Amino acid sequence: MKFIQVCADELISIRKQLKELTEERGIKLSLLPFFIKATSLALLEFPSLNASIDEKLENVIHKASHNICLAMDTPGGLVVPNIKNCEQRFVAVISIY
Fold first, then answer.
1. Do the strands 60-62 and 68-69 form a parallel or antiparallel pair, or are they unpaired?
2. Which residues form the 2-oxoacid dehydrogenase acyltransferase catalytic domain (predicted)?
3. 55: helix, strand or coil
4. Of 33, 67, 71, 78, which has the maximum CB count within 10 A?
5. In this structure, are residues 66 and 85 in contact, taking their beta carbons and an 8 Å threshold?
6. SS3 content of the chain, % helix, strand, coil (to 5)
7. pTM of the entire structure?
8. Which 3 state secondary structure label does DSSP give 22?
9. Per residue, what are the HEC states of 24-92?
């Protein structure tokens, strides 16, 4: 398996700046919303990853919106929030979900 090392210094710096602003509004800002937004931006660049094939296997259907789910194991059981229209949302708004 090959791993790619990434420098996240700028991401951490931006999060730190935004975290101060969002905490004033009662919003907890982790790194996860940044990764969700990055995924949405990647889908804009590679729209075939946000597509499906019709039932007859004849046509590729490209989805306009980026509805991203993330499964989380909680003490109450599995929770899978569906964050709709990530391509239209700011990182701070994504973090509310």
1. unpaired
2. 4-94
3. coil
4. 33
5. yes
6. 45, 15, 40
7. 0.84
8. helix
9. HCCCCCCCHHHHHHHHHHHHHHCHHHHEEECCCCCCEEECCCCCEECCEEECCEEECCEECCHHHCCHH
